[in-house]
Amino acid sequence: MDDEPIVRWYWIGDHLGYLGNLLADHAVIALLPVLIGLLLAVPLGLACARFPRLYQPLSAVFNIVYALPSLAVFVVLIPYTGLATQATVMIPLTFYALAVLLPTTVDGLHAVPDSVRQAATAMGYGPWHRLTTVELPAAVPYLIAGLRVAAVSSISLASVGALVGRGGLGYLFVDGFQRTFPTPIVAGIVLIAVLALAVDLLLVGARRLLAPWAVREKGAGS
Amino acid sequence: MITFEGAGKRHPDGTIAVEGLDLEVPTGRITVLVGPSGCGKTTLLRMVNRMVEPTSGRVLLDGTDVAQLEPAKLRRGIGYVIQQAGLFPHRKVIDNIATVPYLLGWDRKEARARAAELLELVGLAPETAKRYPFQLSGGQQQRVGVARALAADPPVLLMDEPFSAVDPVVRAGLQEELLRLQSELHKTVLFVTHDIEEAVRLGDQVVVLREHGRIAQLADPHTLLTTPADDGVAAFLGRDRGLRGLGLRPASAVALRPVGDGLRYGGWELALDDAGRPIGWIDRTAVSAELHPAAGFRPETDTLRTALDAVVLSPAGVAVALDGDGRATGTASRDAILAALTPTGATAVGGIDANADESSDTNVGTGPDANAGAKADAKTTVSTRKALAADGTGEAGTTDRVGGPEGSDGGR
Fold it and tell me: What are the structural domains of chain A?
């Protein structure tokens, strides 16, 4: 690696299409689990808010899953999902996203002031109706704060999947190390950072759009 | 009409919130439940819309046991206002107000039109409609809370310390607004407060509660203030109840000395501007022509308490009666005002006036109610005014007054 420069621009120029494909692959592998996690976290969170006894065991399960090293989980899954399939990487990432999103959903639902909850009940909302039309919309800032953490960590974790054959931009790291050729590594890092930043900005924008009333509220992300 | 028939609430842990209450809340009137914290007043209120289920007895709404009605349906027909307003943070003001119409399945346009109507009714500007609750002051939020409770025009309104969280000036405004609304709408209102001042001001009927929801006294405000049932109630009402009673009697009872009969009282003379509005009192014995502020009252709208206040504030011991435009229509000396306080005639209670040229010192009748406490209270005017100023400025102040010999203030 003595005379090797950090970046060989011609390599990037030659591989634009390849890099684009990896970026798209990475985005799907990283973000689809977050989306599925959200779709699971909302009903689970509502159930936990309605039946508080559910919350402790559920959050314990997801915390344990979150503690498992991702590479180990990928390896365990290979016999079932096969090598180099998206599912091998996406299933653990979904659980990780859920582990982040479930507590934020439940916190968000609980963050509604008691007076609001009582007023809603007194006006004739049933428990489920109130949860979905009053508490859930009011929890949106919390949900989006959770999504920002989940999305960024998922984008970072997805690259590990390259070690089991499916990692989007993570493949550039494996490739670069094997050939002692730093250019793809640098390209991968930059692209991952750009992807994370873009998704984060998108979520901040979504928050402005979906919860304009929360602009001045504290403690629910920014 | 709301009827409590032996309605009681015992918590699962055995503690008793309400022992068993019998009470009728008449249709179209304001009934105030007042008592120290922990007396069960909120529990009683919530029995009406089934947010609390009684463990004994029952609550009837126009003769129907509310336990037989489906909670959600029952609640949509009962307005509910609470201390913190409880507005939905994610909905604009207009949609907050339209909540119950939406729940009742009204057309969106219709519901919003109704909400806009109510916004105006509670005295908020139309542009408020598009704001979010966090953009409003506490007083404005509370107005929206009242509008929301009235949106579907429910015959019954439950109000749980709705004005306790706002400052005294805003609270007075909200109370006035409620009385104005009630004079138009004639709802059956059950109002809970720990502030006796508020109870007396708003209630057609005041229910003073002791711990476990026992009724200490049920009376109209005037009777309550003049003849408390026992020492406990008297202590709860506070020392200045005689004075407060004056706040329930119109100032029109004061016999005025017309402006044309002269504006001199002893060494003092009232100066008027060209339009007839008072500028101030001039001390004719003094060398300088310094003006001393002239306190006034409006006989048509103010109470005897305001008139008495004006006389106390005046350096000449004379209150100036004003019309709607602030012009002086007459004057009332200390004697004239004190005469209006007692129906038995003009006894010199204050006794230190030097009103040589007072001529209209006749009593024109102050209504049927003799106020036994008025004489004594009038003498302590200065000290009680201070006590009044401290009223309701915070939880601490009010609880102090509540803690009577009964030791009824167990909560805080």
Answer: 9-214 (1.10.3720.10)
Among partner residues B72, B78, B89, which is closest to A126 by beta-carbon distance?
B72
> What's the confidence (pLDDT) of residue B343?
55
Whether B396 is in a domain gets the answer no
pLDDT in tens, A5-42: 888 888 888 889 999 999 999 999 999 999 999 999 99
Residue in A closest to B46 by C-alpha: A122
The CATH number linked to B293 is 3.10.580.10
Q: Do A213 and B82 touch (CB under 8 A)?
A: no
Q: Tens digit of pLDDT for each residue in B107-165?
A: 999 999 999 999 999 999 999 999 999 999 999 999 999 999 999 999 999 999 999 98
Q: Burial, A186: exposed, middle or buried (Cβ in 10 Å; 0-12, 13-18, 19+)?
A: middle
**Alpha-carbon gap: B51 to the closest alpha carbon of chain A (Å):** 7
ipTM exceeds 0.85: no
Q: Does residue B29 form part of some domain?
A: yes
Is A118 in Cβ contact with B90 (below 8 Å)? no
- The number of distinct structural domains making up chain B is 2
Q: For residue range B334-347, list pLDDT tens digits in order.
A: 888 888 887 543 33
According to DSSP, residue B17 is labeled E
Handedness of CA B132, B134, B137, B141 (dihedral sign): positive
Residue B410 placed within a domain: no
Q: A86-110 and A16-50 are packed helices; what angle lies between their axes, rounded to 10 degrees?
A: 40
> CB contact, 8 Å: B396 with chain A?
no
Sign of CA dihedral B346, B350, B351, B355: negative
Mutate which of B43, B83, B90 to disrupt the A interface (most A C-beta within 10 Å)?
B90
Q: Say yes or no for a CB contact (<8 Å) between B89 and A120.
A: no
Are both B293 and B239 inside the same structural domain?
no
- The whole domain housing B70 covers 2-246
